[in-house]
Write a structure and sequence with these properties.
Layout (H helix, E strand, L loop, with lengths): L23 E3 L6 E3 H6 L15 H8 L6 E3 L17 H9 L7 E8 L2 E8 L10 H17 L3 E7 L7 H20 L4 E9 L1 H4 L8 E4 L10 H8 L10 H6 L5 E2 L5 H13 L5
Parallel strand pairs: 5-6, 6-7, 7-8, 8-9
Antiparallel strand pairs: 1-2, 3-4, 4-5
């Protein structure tokens, strides 16, 4: 009966199968190994613990807008180098490297329909120099806000940013005033502005348009703040509470109106817009 027995031999390197690196992802929340295709079907939300993995700007456009309705605006705008900035890498080289990944700028803007409601939309792209806000980002957000004003549409902005783009210095900081001013006009016109805060939303973006929504919605666990914890602790000379810059903490302290699962985001926004629109567009 020797054929019932099998000699145990250690696996050799040539016996191992190569597993493609793009098949699985590891959840940063619980450590679960997740099948990437199934994870994408779940909008990059871990089915085990609910951790929200980052998704692309294009994915938010597809998530929020009805299929085939998106019309991109100002895709031709490109960043310049007004300060001739050179650090470890010249600014034009950084822009070229980001564009080589198929990106145009740190934000995608356009119009479309959300559950049949015509909206103006801006989605920040963290994959383009950390979603930093330079002159082009501020200009594109201002322009799409003017489109919302002209055609009397609600404005949605999805934020994901490391803050102002340091390579543009004061030109970048000026975008805080530019975007805040046009949002004041949106408010005066009585048009809804919904701000969606994703991980991370920091720096000058948080200090300007990201926190000016009629409704501020955040994804679970999103990092939201202006400066880093170390800088704040050194400034105020106090120990900060754990998780004080996370979406849930901000909701508990009135800075965020609601923390919403990504899978429920579109439905919630549609209900909010219909509530805000009641009797206005009819």
């Amino acid at each position: 009966m020797a054929w019932f027995r099998k000699d145990k031999q250690p696996l050799k390197a040539q016996d191992r199968r190569d597993v493609p690196t793009d098949v699985f992802d590891k959840c940063k929340g619980c450590g679960e190994i997740l099948y990437r295709e199934r994870l994408a079907q779940n909008l990059n939300v871990c089915p085990t613990c609910g951790y929200h993995l980052r998704v692309s700007a294009d994915a938010y456009v597809s998530l929020l807008l009805d299929s085939g309705t998106f019309k991109e605006l100002d895709a031709h705008l490109r960043a310049a180098d007004p300060l001739n900035f050179t650090d470890l890498k010249p600014y034009p080289a950084r822009i070229a490297a980001a564009e080589a990944k198929g990106k145009n700028e740190g934000v995608i803007t356009g119009t479309g329909e959300l559950d049949g409601i015509e909206v103006a939309l801006a989605v920040m792209d963290f994959d383009f120099i950390g979603g930093s806000m330079g002159s082009v980002v501020g200009e594109k957000i201002a322009r799409v806000a003017h489109v919302a004003l002209k055609f009397e549409r609600p404005l949605l902005i999805v934020s994901a940013s490391g803050g102002a783009r340091m390579q543009e210095g004061i030109f970048s900081l000026m975008q805080m005033a530019k975007t805040s001013t046009v949002l004041a006009r949106i408010h005066e016109a009585g048009l809804p502005f919904i701000s969606i805060l994703t991980h991370p939303t920091t720096g000058g973006v948080t200090a300007s348009f990201a926190m000016l929504g009629d409704v501020n919605i955040a994804e679970p666990g999103a990092l939201i703040g202006f400066a880093g914890p170390r800088v704040i602790e050194e400034t105020i000379k106090q120990e900060l509470p754990k998780g004080f810059q996370r979406a849930e903490f901000l909701q508990d302290h009135g800075m965020v109106d609601q923390v919403v699962d990504r899978r429920e985001l579109k439905g919630l926004i549609a209900r909010l817009l219909r509530h805000q629109y009641a009797g206005w567009k009819d």
